[in-house]
Amino acid sequence: SMAEKAGFKHFMLKEIFEQPEAILNTVKGRIIPDSGQVDLPEIGLDDETIRGIERIALVACGTSWHAALVAKYWIEKWVGVPVEVDIASEFRYRTLLLNDRVLTISISQSGETADTLAGIRLASQLGSRILTICNVVGSTMTREADGVIYTHAGPEIGVASTKAFTSQLAALFLLTLYLGKVRETIEPETLRELGHALVGIAGVIEEELPTIRSQIQELIERYYDSRDFLFVGRGLNFPIALEGALKLKEISYIHAEGYASGELKHGPIALIDKDMPVMALVPRDGVYQKSISNVEEIKARQGRLVLIGTRGDEHLPTLTDDVLYLPRVHDELNPLLYTIPAQLLAYEIANRRGCDVDQPRNLAKSVTVE
Ligand code: G6P
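Structure tokens predicted for Glutamine--fructose-6-phosphate aminotransferase [isomerizing]:
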């Protein structure tokens, strides 16, 4: 009913709008922004164990795997520990070089995904410590792990994950700060700055959501009947491009692919013509110039560009009419913010096409069989 959807047409839309609260609930009590103190008592690892970690293995499926990909950038940059990221169905069937100095982290909204669960069981048998990032209290994964970081996103009903994803990102950023604090790889001043930025991102998303939605609604009239869609991004926003493509294909059935911008010339650029829409995530971050030169290659081949960039960037409207601006936030938090227009693009297109947004064909909320 409309009542259980709080007046929203679909659970997915309701859940997109619940993201500021979900992020805040996930960071609440775990971070004191002014002092920069981060605390994760439920992590189940003492400081000595944390200092002894030599490698981290991240295991997940679907949208949760995209959160893992973002975390690799964060942890390697701020903690200096090598991170490998696996799709759980690959992890469980390849040769695993794990031991007690490797921390295995599963990321799962449900805590019940069969492949992810099998992955942590194997890792545990090999002596690895298991931490799980999970949204469902008491789920199988949380019971089997040595430690848990709960995302407090609340129940997610829409099959396509939204608030669980941004809450996973918040939890993984918290974990990065915590590991950096214990291992002393992040200066106290930087810890304060990053913690402050994390807490602040919820408010930024809250403030921007209505504007992003109305801009997307206006834009989709020109894109909703597309046959294909590309999403591109660099660095921290590469996994967000993957997530945008996944959302769109899941709920609108438009063929979509996500690519690292720099990889375009190794194949997908062959697809670009006047009928190919490309959403490019181009914040003014450390890889901005590189991203723009990739976008220019798309423009030169008449691709239909939708650019998501930093408010005030006057170069973007010279490349396309379809520019959506987001405020400047700390570069490290861009993935949380840039996810929002990608989710809303998928939602509005699927809704415009009359698709069953909350229950897309052939998909299940939780995949408990292999
Ligand atoms: C299914 C869902 C996805 C989800 C994936 C992993 O495919 O439809 O939305 O990302 O499972 O689920 P998990 O609960 O492990 O995060």
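The mean pLDDT is 96.
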